[in-house]
Amino acid sequence: MSENFTPFVMDGHIHMINRQFYLGGDITDHYSDGQVDLPRMRKGGVDAIFFSIYTSDDYYPGRFEWKQTMVLMDLALRQIEKHKDQIELAPTASDIERAYKSGKIAAFLHLEGAFDLDGDLGLLRVLHRVGVRSLTLVAHNSTNHFADSCGSHGKWGGITQHGVEVVHEMNRLGMLIDLAHASDQTIQQVVEASSDPVLYSHGGSRFFVDIERNITDKAARAIAAKGGLVGLQFGNSMNNPRYAEWLQKRKMANPAAPTAGPASPFTSIEAVHEAVAKTYPPEPDPMPENLRMPVGQMVSVLNHWIDVAGEDHVSLGSDLDGWPALAKGMRDIGDYPLLITTMRECGWSEERICKVAGLNLLRLIRQVTER
Q1: Rounded to an integer, what distance in angstroms lies between the CA atom of residue 328 and that of residue 3?
Q2: pTM for the complete prediction?
Q3: 108 closest CA partner among 94, 119, 120, 118
Q4: Are 209 and 236 in contact (CB under 8 A)?
Q5: Distances (CA, A) of 349 to 305, 346, 352
Q6: Distance CA 183, CA 66 (A)
Q7: What's the half-sphere exposure (Cβ side, CA atoms, 13 Å) at 357?
Q8: How many Å apart are CA 226 and CA 97, to the nearest integer?
Q9: Which of 133, 115, 121, 136 minimizes the C-alpha distance to 72?
Q10: Are 207 and 217 in contact (CB under 8 A)?
Q11: How far is Cα 351 from Cα 286, in angstroms, rounded to an integer?
């Protein structure tokens, strides 16, 4: 393997623009905290990203999710235009390749959370017109009005008939369906309903950490059989069995106090902004250093998925600035080369590294967006 080997790297889930919305500043600023900015992206050799815009669960009770999505979208598009010498909107695989060849970071617009709890198809079409080419089908950790999340009690037994209509409209538009945060039933039913391959953008394997947020081997096989991908989230909580066991013991020793029920909805979107702003800048919860996983544990999860689904169906979705506590030696996106180096040290071929680091995602995007 060449010492100068530098694969094309595309990350399938990076939180962008939310920090700038709540705290100000530009995506080109080199922050001393958090995990992502363009200068550190350059340092880490990341060439393309799912530019993920996150509408958090806090906006749902008052039904502010659509307005917040559009506010964040406006800021994202203005930031990309302002810094077009460094980053370029790339709604297709060909656009991603063009940006890469010109030395720019390619931004593939993605939404996480509810664009609309009702799944209005007209609003979906509006998002497509402004450049969005991927979104999570469920409302983050909440069940929306057409699809069950893994983070709440199932209401629909998967997806409703309208959920099927949302899937079919995304297929027609050429929008990539992301099943991260979806329930097991939702994943299975969407794979069956979709004419296109789908993506599980960021998570871990339930083989290693048995939590509902992680994907089962059965679901990974189903996604792969349809031509889709499963993507690795970089955090200890999803990939590190020792840390997961420690968290469970701490939870059992300190059970949460009972509550009177869900909090009342905020009366204005400004009140939601004020509450959410207190959670920024995003920093992972502290964890005992002796429990922090080595980078090799991430490769172990990837190897398991390769055994289960094949190397053509595995990708990376770090979830950086989404609060993942990273492996030893990794603090932010600038440390991405540690993962690539560890892949090499674990005996991966250049071909396999290239596929998992970015080419699998590029192929999937081409298949969905260029028909």
Answers
A1: 24
A2: 0.95
A3: 94
A4: no
A5: 16, 9, 5
A6: 23
A7: 25
A8: 24
A9: 115
A10: yes
A11: 36
Tokens of 198: 């789908």
Give residue for tokens 């009972």.
258
At 343, list the tokens. Answer: 């892949």
- Model confidence over 44-65: pLDDT tens digits? 999 999 999 999 999 999 999 9
| Cα Rg of the chain (Å, integer) | 19
Instruction: Give the per-residue pLDDT at 165.
Output: 98
Average pLDDT score, the chain:
95
Tokens encoding 249: 């013991």
Q: How far apart are CA 176 and CA 329, in angstroms?
A: 33
Beta strand pairing status for 199-203 and 229-232?
parallel
Task: Give me 112's structure tokens.
Answer: 């996480």
Q: Under CATH, what is the fold of the domain 10-256+322-369?
A: TIM Barrel (3.20.20)
Tell me, what amino acid is at 148?
D
Left, alpha or beta for 282 (phi > 0: left; psi -120 to 50: alpha)? beta
In DSSP terms, 177 is beta-bridged to: 135
Of 89, 26, 36, 34, the residue nearest 336 (C-alpha): 36
- Best CA proximity match to 330, nearest among 350, 316, 315: 316
| C-alpha 3, offset from chain centre | 31
Do residues 69 and 63 make contact, with C-beta atoms less than 8 angstroms apart? no
Residue 261: what pLDDT?
40
Rounded Cα gap, residues 168 and 125, in angstroms: 12
Domain ranges of the chain: 10-256+322-369
Chain segment 60-73, per-residue pLDDT in tens: 999 999 999 999 99
Q: Which residues neighbour 344 within 8 Å (Cβ) at sequence distance 6 or greater?
A: 1, 5, 353
Question: Dihedrals φ, ψ of 223, to 5°?
Answer: -65, -45
Residue 93 tokens, joined:
């695989």
Distance in angstroms (rounded) separating the CA atoms of residues 134 and 174:
9
